[in-house]
Amino acid sequence: MTPAAARSTPTGSATPAIPPRPAIVAALHDEARTLVVRGAPRPDAVRAEISGVGFERATRTGRALVARGATALMSWGTAGALDVAARPGEVLIYRAVRWRDGAEYACDPAWVAALAVRLAPLAPRVVLGLSSPHAVFDEAERRALHAATGATAVDMETAALAAVAADAGIPFVALRCVVDPVGFAVPRSAIAGLAPDGTSRPGRTIATLVKRPYELPDLLRLASWYRLALKQLRAAAGHCRPDFAYRP
Q1: The whole model's pTM is what?
Q2: Domain for residue 178, yes or no?
Q3: What's the CA gap between 213 and 188, in Å, rounded?
Q4: Potential cystine with 18: which of 4, 65, 75, 188 (Cβ 3.0-4.6 Å)?
Q5: Exposure b/e, 38-50, CB count within 10 A at least 16 = b
């Protein structure tokens, strides 16, 4: 986004302009919370927006941010593994993202390189990502997608934001952290607990679990991986602040 204009103070002095920072989009509330520093004196230091789940919601959010003056977009959040080498908690920087129709969007190479340097303590990998119109939870489908595209991880929003950035002619990058590995079948109780607007529905998870109690071990395993991914996202945010390696 463009720097904020200097404002006059009662004494006639001017406050310094806020340096430009990317507009960051997360699908889920949990993902967005990893950007927040508890007790920070400047809550506006990170400019983030929660889109909700899926291509259409991400597209609307990205377009709204561009209309409000965003000069760079960043996709932020979690992803599922497509490559067996991708492990829970691994930090991924996308060099490009492919949509399932074959369209591919390159991320800004200078921004990717700067992020990789900034995040070096977390040993990120620079990879090809994939966006799908539906959640991919089945091992066979994951393996097939990896074989067909070479993508390392899958989410449902990044390609939408990349397309918005491409249309607007502004830089784009994506940072995702792996939650579930290829060989893991996500339980239905976990799927039921995710609302389209990016909030959690624990009541639905519990209701589904009552009908499918055998899913409890896998649900607990997934919850552990999810906490790890959020922890890694929080660590990544700490290394990236205040500008998230964006240089206009």
Answers
A1: 0.87
A2: yes
A3: 11
A4: 4
A5: eeeeeeeebbbbb
Distance, CA of 194 to CA of 202 (rounded, Å): 8
Where do we find the tokens 């079948």?
185
Q: List the domain range (segments joined by +) for residue 168.
A: 23-183+226-240
Written as six digits, the tokens of 57 are 């919601």
Show Cβ contacts of residue 70 under 8 Å, excluding neighbours closer than 6 positions: 1, 22, 23, 170
**Rounded (10°) angle between helices 216-240 and 202-211:** 150
Q: Round to whole Å and give the CA distance between 214 and 183.
A: 18
pLDDT on residue 153? 98
Secondary structure element (H or E) that encloses residue 24, with its range: strand 23-26
Q: Is 203 contained in some domain?
A: no
> How many domains in the chain?
1
The tens digit of pLDDT for each residue in 4-54 reads: 332 333 334 444 444 567 999 999 999 999 998 665 544 445 688 999 999
pLDDT surpassing 80 at residue 159: yes
Structural domain contains residue 169: yes
- Kindly state the DSSP code that residue 242 receives in the 8-state scheme: T
> Could you tell me if residue 7 is inside a domain?
no
Q: The domain spanning residue 158 has which CATH number?
A: 3.40.50.1580
